[in-house]
UniProtKB/TrEMBL annotation:
Lineage: Eukaryota, Metazoa, Ecdysozoa, Arthropoda, Chelicerata
Name of the featured protein: DDE Tnp4 domain-containing protein
Coiled coil spans: none
Keyword Metal-binding on entry: yes
Domain DDE Tnp4 residue range list: 182-245
Predominant subcellular localization, coarse grouping: nucleus
UniProt-annotated location(s): Nucleus
Amino acid sequence: MAGDDNFAQFVDYVNRNEVILNGTAYAYASPSRRTLKDRLNPMEAYDKHEFLCRYRFTKSAVKKLLAVLPLQENADGRGFPLPPLMQLLIALRFYGAGTFQLVSGDLVNVSQPTVSRVVKRISALLAETLFPVLVKFTEAAQVSGVMEEFYKIGKFPGFSGCIDCPHVPIRSAGGDSAEGITGPDLQFYDVVASWPGSAHDSRIFDSSRARVMYETGAISGILLGDMGYACRSYLMTPLKDPQRGSPEYRQASPDCTECSAAYIGTAKRTALEGNPRHRRL
């Protein structure tokens, strides 16, 4: 009988060991697999939030922009050419951060002259490819809708655009003056960014295509500007000496011009946030 008792004790011992080994105390979690990332490729190195903070574009927006721009792979077999995606990211980082070209190059292990050439090339492609598509005046059939939207903002009838000429503080003698005509939905109709900071607002407008289009009737409606412009039949400015009989006009003018100033100011802050240190290309 002693042998039976020993065998029963042995079986009980084995069962207790199985419970212990299969319990949570001995649970073994397999190690997670390491994911290798290309640290020189910002599309892989940063998550969505980090990428947006550095490049001011989402990853999907960058892919769409890359598909639109006519960037070609260098197939001559010489040197180590940058792929189109890296060229676009270098330019976007330079636009968004406003830092020195040397710093932008160190982030992706390229030289400052390479950054300068890439930014110049991408800037020209953006101006040639996207500017005519995105920055344009409203079609004649849609002008009435624009007038209705502006009327909702400031109760101003027949209003088809708002003009302003802010100063862009780039690193040059006096900066640049950029004229912008905006719509009610915070979109640009026209941009003129080729004048120095010393140029007066009215001079820039007098030499622009927008003046010709409004004077010839190619664009219907009225522009609204600030005191920097001369009052014309198609360009209304604030009254110097407002009378008692013009409360509606005095109220409508700032309501509408604030839309333009706010959007242009947002565009400036987006491109030149902080202390801009851009150098001429």
